[in-house]
Amino acid sequence: MLGQIELLTIEEINAEGAYLNGGQLGDVFLPKAELADHLEAGDPVQVFIYLDNAGHPTATTKKPIAKVGEFALLRVKEITTVGAFMDNGIAKDILAPYNEQKPKMQDGHSYLVRIYLDNASQRICASSNLKKFVDKTPPNYQKSQQVELIVAGKTDIGYKVIVNESHFGVVFFSDVFQRMYVGQRLPGFIKNVREDGKLDITLEKPGMAKIDDLGEKILQALKANGGKLPLGDKSDPELIKKQFQTSKANFKKAIGGLFKQGLIDLQATSISLK
C-alpha cells in the first residue's frame, strides 16, 4: 500500500485534516490543505500513501510522477550527506541513496530511476541502478511482437531500452528515424531475439505492415498539404527522415506502392495526389 494510489475511507475530520482507514497501516493522515470541502466522514478519497519525516503514514491527493515498482525520469532537487533527493511531483521528495546511484547523481540533473520500497525503513526510495530491477530470466518474445519501451540511455551502437519494463534491449542507430531521449516511452517491435537472450528492437512495424502504415501517413500528409509534397525518390534522406521518421528505402517502397495503386503521381523530388 505504501507508495501506491489507493481508495481509502475517511474515518474522522478535524482542524488539521482527516484520518483515513489504512487497514494494516492504521490511520493515514491527510492534511487539511489536501481535503476537499465537500468531503465528510465515511466518504472515499483516492490518495497516494507515503511515510512523512517522522515515519507516520501520510496521504496526498496529488498524483506522483511515479509509484513504487515503476520507472520514471526524475530531477535531483538536492544533494545531501545521505544521497540525492528527487522531485516526484508531491511535497515529499524521494531519496536516491548513494549506493543506489549509477552513475553518481548531480544537483539539477534528471535520471531514469526505479521507485522501490526500502525493506528496512519502509520508505519510498529511488535507484538508478536499473540492472537490479530487470528480469534475469530469458525473455519470451516472438519476432515482430509489439512491445512498450522506455529509453534508458545511449550507447556506442544505439539506444538502450527497457522492454515491457522487464528486459533490456537495444535500438540500433540505423533503425532510428526520430528523436529519442532518456525516459521517453514509445512503442516498438521485436526485431530479433539473440541466442544469448539479448533483444534487438525496431521502432517501425516489420515487413509490409510498416510500408502499408507509411503509405497511409503519406496520403494523409498529401491531403493536409493541398495534394502535393516536395519529396520524391531522389530527395535527400534527411528530409524524408524529418517528415516521416523513416528511411529513404522505406519511403521509396511506400510511394511506389501508392503509384502502382494509381493514387499518386511521382516526380524526382515531389509527389502529388491524382
Automatic annotation (TrEMBL):
Residue ranges constituting the Conserved virulence factor B first S1 domain according to the UniProt record: 2-62
InterPro entries given in the database record: CvfB_fam, CvfB_S1_st, CvfB_WH, NA-bd_OB-fold, WH-like_DNA-bd_sf
One Pfam family linked to the record: WHD_CvfB
Recorded superkingdom: Bacteria
Regions that span the bilayer: none
Conserved virulence factor B-like winged helix domain sequence ranges: 216-273
Family: Belongs to the CvfB family.
Name listed for the protein in its UniProt record: GntR family transcriptional regulator
Record organism: Pseudoalteromonas xiamenensis
